[in-house]
Amino acid sequence: MTGDWSVGGTVRRLLPVLLALTTLELLGGLALGSFEATLLRYPTLLVLVPVTIGTAGNLGSVLAARLSTAFHLGTLRFAPTDDRLVGNAAATLGLAVTVFPVVGAGGWAVVSLTGAPRLSVTTVVAVAATSGVALGVAATVVAVLATYVAYRLGLDPDEFVVPVVTNVCDVLGVVVLFLAVALLV
Q1: DSSP codes, the chain
Q2: How far is CA 95 from the centre of its chain?
Q3: What percent of the chain has pLDDT over 70?
Q4: Residue 95 has pLDDT above 60, yes or no
């Protein structure tokens, strides 16, 4: 890992990554814009977008932070037999399976209080749960891979992993949510 903790050193290490992630976020915004008609037709989906994206990013960044801490403590091995790695990944997936249906029900409830939802609660929960499980898997894979790549390149995972995971999960959140909508609505 690099030992240059100066402002200039941090900027030199992070600027290229942040510029690449900004480009990725722009692509996510374009993808979101392409679904504008669907979002306006089904207001419940509009409510789900920020919550789904945020929750996926939160799950991934918590996992990334835990893996980074374990890495710094020397208690993490990047092997499928590592109990710490497998346990943290399983916990992330378990949270995704339990949280996203609640997100869907909450989104439906908010829209039903403020207007007439055009989708049934079961449809909205199914969309949220399906996209949530897929995003939980994606966030887990991205967090593990980003931590591993940072480790292999000799980079500090604390600097790189969380921004990468949250930005990638933002874009994946949009794409996966609308794939679930295409399948279920």
Answers
A1: -----SHHHHHHHHHHHHHHHHHHHHHHHHHHHHTHHHHHH-HHHHHHHHHHHHHHHHHHHHHHHHHHHHHHHT----STT-HHHHHHHHHHHHHHHHHHHHHHHHHHHHHHHHS--SS-HHHHHHHHHHHHHHHHHHHHHHHHHHHHHHHHTT--HHHHHHHHHHHHHHHHHHHHHHHHHHHH-
A2: 13
A3: 98
A4: yes
Q: What is the widest separation between alpha-carbon atoms in the chain?
A: 57
Using the CB atoms, write b or e for 67-92: b if 16+ within 10 Å: bbebbeeeebeeeeeeeebeebbeeb
Give per-residue pLDDT as tens, 11-43. Answer: 888 888 888 888 888 888 888 888 888 888 998
Query: pTM (2 decimals)?
Result: 0.85
